[in-house]
Amino acid sequence: MKVLIVGSGGREHAIAWKTAQSSKVDKIYCAPGNAGIEEYAECVNIGAMEFEKLAAFAKEKEIDLTVIGMDDPLVGGIVDVFEAEGLRVFGPRKNAAVLEGSKAFSKDLMKKYKIPTAAYENFDNAEEALAYLETAKFPIVLKADGLALGKGVLICNTLDEARDGVRTIMTDKKFGTAGNRMVIEEFMTGREVSVLSYVDGKTIKTMTSAQDHKRAGDGDTGLNTGGMGTFSPSPFYTEEVDEFCRKYIYQATVDAMAAEGREFKGIIFFGLMLTEDGPRVLEYNARFGDPEAQVVLPRMKNDIIEVFEACIDGTLDQVDLQFEDNAAVCVVLASEGYPVKYEKGFAIKGLENFKDREGYYVFHAGTKKAEEGIVTNGGRVLGVTAKGKDLKDARANAYEAIRLVEFDNKYYRSDIGKAIDEAE
């Protein structure tokens, strides 16, 4: 098979790495890709939002399967464009990707089908949102309705903070058109857990659990980012929690989308909060998480192409999804100043240290090739992942592994997986 992967981040590198292991695949392309993905794929200079060019490329190269890694093209309808051209593609159509594309839609869906989530109200008018805040309990959560690179969520402890937040999202449009509408919801307390799943429209198969670290600084301080690290599995995701989620959240979401005429095929990422009153849905994503993919895919035993095809063909019920009985931790190496302002173009040294090192991986996010070799080209530069017999072992291995690679202005959190200690 010839496979095309659309995207350019650490998630797409992890997908390309896993795809390269498939006995079904002879050739991989990635558009636009990055310097690390080039190890497994031929990178093509076509942007992820250039749907017509991507479809034309897929036809020209006789691509057998296209895998959409990113949220923007999915929400924009790339799957519909490919299907209209008779091309085989993995990911939800536009009317299903709205599950991630609109927080107001997803909240209304959960309310209608009684899927556990936080109490909320939707607003498309800043003045109405400000008036609502006068009667609200604090802390409270403000969410831009649309896609905002994982950064469009504000937790406000006071009325003044919340007023500023409404203006930031809806008046100043800090997150662009994503802030044309917004959701105001109750603040939930508990442990956050991420559960990714494969879906074929009717059957859902969940992957192993993970936990992300969104804030830029140690101790969950600083601004929200795309993710500073993650670990898998989560010790807080117990059999009891899993049983509840399977009964009231996972299948219920797939069935709700089908009932709405929005058949979902692809990945549903469930962002969960484990509250005192049971698990609640924080958010949905319509693709692999980043950096969750970097700890989940190295633990997956299955041929990823077989799973993708089962999702497309509606035969996921025949797949026995299996994961290794171990753990993985990913520490993101970022550019100092991320997610606000940072410099690019610094040479990266030591990448060769990961060659043939069993259980250690370096996934590229913001990198590119230059005359002096591979250089930094983004806020999140690399995701260093290590496996271990358990979470403590994996965390120790990951922090040891980040010493193998260096670049100027390297920044990382020193407490990824600290919650592992609290689980004991």
From TrEMBL:
Its EC number is 6.3.4.13. Keywords: Ligase. This is Phosphoribosylamine--glycine ligase. It comes from Hominisplanchenecus murintestinalis. The gene is purD.
